[in-house]
Design brief:
Layout (H helix, E strand, L loop, with lengths): L1 H7 L23 H18 L1
């Protein structure tokens, strides 16, 4: 339980969205983060057209 709480209390790291986001040694998720960011960019681009 103590380890679970320690993991929960770790600080978030805010990063700039760039090619470093593809570093799978730093970020987990098998490229899920870049995929989500791409989808957000597509959504925002389409919103500007409307």
């Amino acid at each position: 339980m103590k380890q679970h709480i320690e993991n929960y209390l770790k600080k978030l790291e805010w990063v700039t969205i760039n090619n470093d986001i593809l570093n799978i040694e730093k970020f987990s998720g098998n490229y899920n983060i870049p995929h989500i960011i791409t989808q957000i960019k597509v959504y925002l681009k389409n919103e500007k057209r409307n």
